[in-house]
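User: I'm putting together a small comparison set for a docking exercise, and I want a reference complex before I start. The sequence is below, and the ligand is magnesium ion. Could you produce the 3D structure with the ligand included, as structure tokens?
Assistant: Of course. I'll restate your input first, then give the structure tokens for the complex.
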Amino acid sequence: MRKGSRVSSNIIMTLVIVWLLIPLLATIIYSLFEDWTGIIPHGFTLANYQKIFTDTAFLTSMYQTLIVCVIPIVITILVVLLGLFVVTVYFPRLEKYMQILCMIPYTIQGVILSVSILILYAKGSTILSGRMTMLIGAYCIIILPHIYNGIRNGMRAVNMNMLLEAAEMLGESKLKAFFKVIVPNILTGITVSSLLAVGLLFGDYVIIRNLSSSNVNNMQKFLYQAMKRSSAEASAVFVVIMLITFAITAIVLTLQSRSTLEKIRNEGK
Amino acid sequence: MAYIRFEKINKFFGSNHVLKDIDLDVEKGQLVTLLGPSGCGKSTLLRCLAGLEQVTDGHIYLDGQEITDVVPRRRGIGMVFQQYSLFPNMSVRDNVAYGLKLKKLPKAEISQKVEQMLEIVGLSEKISQYPAQLSGGQQQRVALARAMVTAPKVLLLDEPLSAIDALLRKNLQIEIRRIQQQLGITTIFVTHDQDEAMVMSDMIHLFHDGRIEQSGTPEEIYTRPATKFAATFIGNYNLPSAADFNRVFHADIPGQDVAVRPEIITLSREAPKAEEGLLVAEGRIPSHISHGNLIRFAVEFDGGLTMNADVVYENKLDFGEGDRVFASLKKDLVIGL
Ligand SMILES: Nc1ncnc2c1ncn2[C@@H]1O[C@H](COP(=O)(O)OP(=O)(O)OP(=O)(O)O)[C@@H](O)[C@H]1O
Ligand SMILES: [Mg+2]
């Protein structure tokens, strides 16, 4: 009876996985062959990949994706770290308000966010109405809750005030002590949450389409344009995006399991 | 002027008056203990000296200089906290070296001092381990090494042994005292354990509800408690009312209450020979408690007065329950409060 249900659940799992993987596989095959009109594709070729990787527009879009991902993440990490430092050390009573503030973006959708930002800032001529500024600002907002949670959870694991006081008694200033004895302990948490944020920003199409000018393209935007030109080329772009996403996920999972292992080892002692 | 001087220290947390007009002097090279029950303000006073807490009112002097408003890192004070406070991301070596690196000493000198200090606290072989790999007692010894290696003017120890089991704790008490005397570091030690205070201190300051109730050497505090609170907190004093005591023992001790240590009462089956200054009364033994090395007999006198008397345990119980005994004690050891 139990064995039977194991078998049937395995079958269901397999079916689901196949169901999910078929489009992926199809896309990969499609991008690797010249012709797939019959049942068996033929004419293996890397031409599509060659084409996109020699296309400066694609390379630029990769580069720009990187830029518009990394800058907001770095900014948000710094802001959250300093914010949490000040709140924990000097204004512990404000902590819950900080938490609420940082959680609000969870409830905001990309379309609403980008449109509101446009309405609010686009007409002015300050630095805030620059396209790049608006985009990076919007991305900072989108990833804020994730970065906040990652850092906050890491900080909970160490007795921050105590460690800071200990460092202070040894002659260190509080802020330096924060970066020397607190941040290293939450580095895994920071890395994981920033990779998650990369994943999030990497998949964005809505906000960048609304906010960026035509000369800022991320890979999603490039994909969209490629689809209009050639479906084989678009498949290749899609596969590249997929691989990058897989890589990020793999790194996150490894880091998470490693930090869990560390925790278990430490507690076991 | 004393090496450390607290002058009229007052500290409020909101409306909570935690330190009340504290005046306290500490001489150079001494180990003094702040002893008192939980919540009486010991840690707060220590943290004020460290600079981790601002006094509401009053002045603190160290080595002839006023330090009341100096930031903690410029006070030259080392501290070991009640909870484990080693930096988890650093090895034992880096933890101990932390303060020396900030002083920008040469590498070779740092390394030599770290090794020397770890030798003193007996943890040389743990030098490359991480805090999570150490036991609680080992962690506190590393914390001690970390605080002492910079040769601070003053070392503050806030119940550093409270999370450590009894046997190791006794060893560490002796260790700390030995290291402190060897290096001559002026040390303030906080504890709520009277035995610990007795073992370690040159001077004990007994705290009660934000005030210093009594100051003195361990012997003075133990043998001459000045108030009822001191007598309750220290030793195992019997504290009958003066009226009851005087009636039973035909004495004339002045004051409200009388403090009598159980070990000064002698029990005997025969009435002891009358003597100048010897108080005697007859009673009955309702029960006893064994403390291992001594037996604490309860003795009930006429009119319901009950006092404890300690008898060193050799190899048999001297008295049984229900026995009638004579209790005698020297009058000049009885303290009127
Ligand atoms: N940061 C703080 N904010 C508000 N009240 C505080 C703070 N620190 C201490 N108190 C209060 O001050 C009083 C004294 O606390 P303190 O920590 O000095 O006691 P203690 O004598 O060290 O006790 P224990 O033996 O339990 O450590 C307590 O009533 C406590 O509630
Ligand atoms: Mg305390």
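Chain A has two domains: 1-45, 47-268. Chain A has a mean pLDDT of 85.
User: Thanks, that's exactly what I needed.
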